[in-house]
Amino acid sequence: MKASQISFRTLREAPAEAQISSHQLMMRADLIRKLGNGLYTYMPLGLKAYRKVENIIKEEWNNIGAQEFKPTVIVPGEIWKESGRWDTMGPQMLKAKNRGEQDMVVSPTAEEAYTAIMRQGLTSYKQLPINAYQINTKYRDEIRPRYGVMRGREFNMADGYSLHADDESLDATYQDYAKAYHRIFKRLGLKIIPVKADTGAMGGSGSEEFMVESPIGDDTLILCDCGYAANVEKAACKEDTPEMAKTDAAIEEVATPNVFSIEDMEKFFGTSSKNFIKALVYRVINSSLDLSKAPHCENLKVVKEEKFTFYPVSYACVLIRGDLEVNEAKLAGLLKASEVVLADDEEIMMIAGAPHGFVGPVNVKCPIIQDLSVNNMHDAYAGSGKEGFHIKHVEPARDYTAYINADVRTVKDGDTCPHCGGKFHTSKGNELGHIFKLGKKYTESMGVTYLDKSGKAAVPTMGCYGIGVDRVLASIIECFHDDNGIMWPMSVAPYTVAIVPIKYKDAMKDAADKLYADLKAAGVEVVLDDRDERPGVKFADADLIGYPVRVTVGDKNLPNVEIKMRNQADPVLVPLEEAGAKIAAMVKAELDQLNG
Ligand code: ATP
Ligand code: MG
Questions:
Q1: Terminal Cα-to-Cα distance of the chain (whole angstroms)
Q2: Which CATH code fits 31-235+426-477?
Q3: Are 242 and 275 in contact (CB under 8 A)?
Q4: 167-187 vs 576-595: helix crossing angle, rounded to 10
Q5: Is the peptide bond before 501 cis (omega within 30 degrees of 0)?
């Protein structure tokens, strides 16, 4: 390709809103342009790199026997009502009505579409497993789109889905995808950490996220030297509440007029926060947990939709040891809720009978969720449920009844690994991909059946597998750049070689044209910078766009040309006659290494 034919304009400065390197460089190199908040257009050079990522995913997924298909992006709201996620997906799902007043959804993901498509024509166990994927537009109305295409509103996901007759078959396909993911990320030059993950709104059992470590990562990773790696939304640590002595003393109220925080309590009572039971009231959105027998839930509004029952708004009081924090993702998962948020002042008064700081376990008017850290606590301190008072001598098992007892704590640096007893450390990461064993969540709710070997109707089990193509592309730039620009791995560069003639005329033009023809004939993706620009501008653009190999053609050096790798400081001089073959071999060697 001739540079003069590619419509691009590079920028010296990135727009102020671009905070991270990949976003800045993608804007400066004109790989993407912004059309609206969280909405980016791929420009020709950006699209070339994007397609390479897509192709690598396709090749590796085709290799494990997955078939490509292509559902629509706009899907009927009806199928989301069947699965129950019409209500639980929350405001990130963009809904619209068509002219016939029918509910429509702009796909944020495609479990429903896949299930609805594949149940058509599924009759016999002989058709299973089915394994199909798409690479297609998704839309999520992210509350805070940021970092360019790293977290956009419209983005592209490679998403595979599989249906199986039994767990062994699902497990085999799940492992195939896991292996394919490792191959994909290796070919892209990325070092990936697979971590155990939260299954969140998706439901289901086994799941792993594929993370790249990054200081600008949105996820917190909990890592142990023994190899344990988990997203903080899922990580569990060894219980570490110290042995405490039981008390027979009855609960006693203590006037604590100026005590509001845990620190205030430590000072006032002269004891460690580990002896306090912290109580937090949460507003729980769209919980599908059965609360019909839960305390104080008799009058909650219940919505019943065909097979689904959920509570649009309910409350939970979470008890946790005073020095620990609640993990809201764990809590939402436990309550099968789309979201949990701390209750506001008015709600706290209504539920706890006291303002924030005085909430206690004893008289709270909602179900109690007790973190495991409280189980071993005795003779503890807590809020009283009355403004200006705390209580002491609290015995958890004696003085109140928890509705659910589970792990909802946020694991942190220095907590103990339950597997090896070592200490956890934390790191930041970005999720590039995800594999899930969904089980029968969608197939059951959406009525998918087939006839098994014995001729009986059975429900297939399901897996799903997603990679964010745009986020992968941005992460590659995040990992591979310097002050001058992008440093593409050979496998993803929009063009692998740039020929830069100092001036595109006379002998330099002839030499550049010959090299261009030689490289094209050798199958190398090459761009010839034929623009009428100063050499400094062309060099700066080549570095910014990040072509892995730059060949400078200058009359001082002819009949030699100068080859410089983007990731190496020093150029080498090579006779023009040999340059084509030599560069083709260099490109091939690096690609072989990535693909090997
Ligand atoms: P996150 O926690 O980062 O929001 P997610 O858990 O919602 O991600 P999945 O539903 O598992 O993501 O989607 C699969 C993949 O799609 C993710 O691993 C990620 O690479 C990509 N992805 C998700 N949301 C976005 C987004 N807003 N912009 C770009 N890519 C995204
Ligand atoms: Mg998300």
A1: 28
A2: 3.30.930.10
A3: no
A4: 150
A5: no
Q: Are 303 and 108 in contact (CB under 8 A)?
A: no
pLDDT at residue 305, as a whole number? 76
Q: Which amino acid makes up residue 418?
A: P
CA angle 348, 352, 355 (to 5 degrees): 55
Superfamily holding 252-406: YbaK/aminoacyl-tRNA synthetase-associated domain (3.90.960.10)
Best mutation site among 431, 435, 438 for ligand 1 pocket (most ligand atoms within 8 Å of CB): 431
| Average pLDDT over every residue of 266-294 | 95
Ligand nearest the Cα of residue 466 is: 1
Q: Is the Cα dihedral 212, 181, 159, 137 positive or negative?
A: positive
pLDDT at site 205: 59
Pocket of ligand 1 (CB under 6 A): 109, 140, 142, 151-152, 155, 157, 218, 431-434, 466, 468, 470-471
Nearest-CA residue for atom 14 of ligand 1: 466
- How confident is residue 201, by pLDDT bands cut at 50, 70 and 90? very low
User: Ligand 1 test: best mutation among 40, 50, 471, most atoms within 8 Å of CB?
Assistant: 471
- For 217, how many CA atoms within 13 A lie in the half-sphere containing its CB? 21
Which atom of ligand 1 has the smallest separation from the CA of 197?
6
* Beta strands per DSSP E along 380-484: 380-383, 389-394, 404-406, 425-439, 450-451, 457-458, 461-468, 481-482
What is the domain partition of the chain in residue ranges? 31-235+426-477, 252-406, 486-595
pTM recorded for the entire structure: 0.87
Using DSSP, state whether 403 is helix, strand or coil. Answer: coil
How far is residue 244's CA from residue 377's CA, in Å, rounded to a whole number? 6
Rounded CA separation 302/270 (Å) = 45
- Of the listed ligands, the closest to the CA of 37 is 1
